[in-house]
Amino acid sequence: MANYAVGDIQGCYKEFDKGLKKINFNEKKDRLWISGDLINRGPDSLKTLERIYNIRSSVNIVLGNHDLHFLARHYADRKAAKNDTLEELLSSSKCEKYAKFLLKQPFVFSKKIKLKNGVKKKYIMVHAGLPHYLTFKECMNLNKLSQEFLNRNPKKNLKKIFFHHRKNNFKIISMKDKLTFFINAVTRIRICDKEGKIMFAFKKGLKDLPYNFVPWFKLKISALTREDRLIFGHWAALNGKTNKQNIIGLDTGCVWGNKLTFVRLEDSKKYFIKKIK
Fold first, then answer.
1. pLDDT digits over 183-241, tens only?
2. Strand (E) positions, the chain?
3. What is the DSSP letter of 28?
4. Which of 62, 153, 158, 206 could bridge across to 76 with cysteines, CB 3.0–4.6 Å?
């Protein structure tokens, strides 16, 4: 048995399928961790979701911002974005089934696994990152409450999540505000200042960091001990590089013409699938 993690697939089904073959993924004994953004921007969102759904008993997923965007388009009539490729999925007779499947997925997932050297390590998976001041217990509690919040009224609460989508200054007055901020943070964070204030609008690389802002993982992450490891996607401009041994970036920009990255968690071996023309 092995645990494999893969970064943002974003509907790049051909590369995803090729990657599963390259790692010899066996759904009867292996586990696949997917760090969000399963769909959108790539050509085959429907096909990608069908494949993942068919092996769902062997898959651990966290939701990404593009997955939430799809849910908002399906449940809350959110307008299409300029580069959306969701029409085939949205018009499919299976759309509701896959939407319900995604609604069940968490924002943060964690599990201890045994490495090849016999040592057990806790892995934490999130799509974009974690606010530095939250403890692991607080993250998992907010994760649980956020799932309940989203499922309780998808239409209303997805609208609330995206109402705050462009805002850097969240006014946290109620628990709903707190959950909305948490969901936006873990699915969209890239940079923050040294006090942890997030600049949500930033989408560029490290060479273009605004003054006094740093990548979120440069701060001391309260949820992580020295022994823990964290895997995330979302930030393609990093090309997977964090210069942190225990924080692993998985988004290597397949949808933008680069590659899809798989990593075997037991020994950190990486497998790269180049974009198929």
1. 999 999 999 998 889 999 899 999 999 999 999 999 999 999 989 999 999 999 999 99
2. 3-6, 31-34, 59-61, 108-114, 120-126, 191-193, 213-215, 229-232, 247-249, 259-264, 269-274
3. T
4. 158
Residue 129, pLDDT above cutoff 80: yes
Angle between helices 45-54 and 95-103 (to 10 degrees): 60
Give residue 110's pLDDT: 98
Domain hosting 161: range is: 3-274
Domain total in the chain: 1
Selection from 2, 1, 3, 6 nearest residue 250 by Cα: 6
One-letter identity of residue 22:
K
Question: CA 251 to CA 53: how far, in whole Å?
Answer: 21
C-alpha separations of 132 from 18, 69, 250 in Å: 36, 25, 20
Q: How far is CA 62 from the centre of its chain?
A: 5
Global pTM value: 0.95
CB 51 within 8 A of CB 19: no
Note the pLDDT of residue 164.
61
Residue 172 confidence (pLDDT) above 60: yes
99 is written with which tokens? 């939407």
